[in-house]
Amino acid sequence: MNPSLIDIGVNLMHRSFDTDRDTVVASALEAGVSPLILTGTSLRNSEGAARYAEQFPGKLFATAGVHPHDTRHCTAVTLGKLRQLAKLPQVVAIGECGLDFNRDFSPRDVQKKWFEEQVKLACELQMPLFLHEREAHVDFVRLLKPYIGSMNKAVVHCFTGTMQELQTYLQLGFYIGITGWICDERRGKHLRELVKRVPLDRLMLETDAPFLTPRDLPVKPQDGRNEPQFLPHIAAAVAGCLGKTAEEVVDATTRTSREFFGLE
């Protein structure tokens, strides 16, 4: 397989990787998954991701942002620190940011306020947005629409939504991130049809590790933890849905990801 399959969403600073982070990166490289883009989900997490990525120039990059779950901790200071992080060469997008009305770990008005602040920051810096939306589609789109003209680019990561939602995102010019959810014969069945509607120049692949381990892996990890090394399996599943070879999907999504994040 092409040695440059890009995982656009890895939660590598998650505690489940604390004991073997370097090994996980090495296993990914061995599986032909490189570079990895580490997802920043809080200020502390974004700082950790940027520091760690710095040790692997050209192989690891990071995003800087605050996930909706964590927005209750945001202040003006948070935004200033994200702005500083965004200037680092290894930081390639603002996010993970968005709205999550599934669990409401942060109040909805707080989520909206700090989501909008991060969208403004991305527009100001002309950086891509790495977006999260769960059970909040209407408010999510309403908040983003005024900024479409000022925005650089945006990807709706871990898309699992409906046909109508997909069409809305594509019409707005957004990119779509697909995870191992597509390998789940129970919950991911509809995605196998919807992925056919995503143009290859708008499609990117991700594991969202350590979450969303593909259910149909031939050899399942004992601890159930997802890793970037499993991304070729997801690429093959997507290729099967599209009636293309895995190499075609790898080439196309890699090209799209490199262009989206401005990777050399």
What does this 3D model show about the protein?
This protein is α/β, with parallel strands linked by helices and 264 residues long. Helix content is 39%, strand content 16%. The chain has helices at 21-30, 43-54, 76-86, 108-125, 137-144, 163-171, 189-194, 231-242, 246-261, and strands at 5-10, 33-38, 60-64, 91-100, 129-134, 154-156, 175-178, 203-205. It has an 8-stranded parallel beta sheet with strand order 1-2-3-4-5-6-7-8. Helix 2 packs parallel to helix 3 and helix 8 (231-242) packs across helix 9 (246-261). It is globular, with a radius of gyration of 17 Å.
Give me a quick take on this structure.
With 264 residues, this protein is α/β, with parallel strands linked by helices. The chain contains nine helices and eight strands.
SSE order, one letter for each helix or strand: EHEHEHEHEHEHEHEHH
Number of contiguous helices: 9
Beta-strand content estimate? 15-25%
Lateral arrangement of strands in the main beta sheet: 1-2-3-4-5-6-7-8
**Shape descriptor:** globular
> Which regions contain 5 or more consecutive residues with pLDDT less than 50?
none
How far is it from the N-terminal to the C-terminal residue, by CA?
Answer: 20 Å
Helix content: 25-40%
- Structural class, by secondary structure, is alpha/beta
Gyration radius, in Å: 17 Å
Q: Got a strand count?
A: 8
Main sheet characteristics: 8 strands, parallel
The mean pLDDT is 96
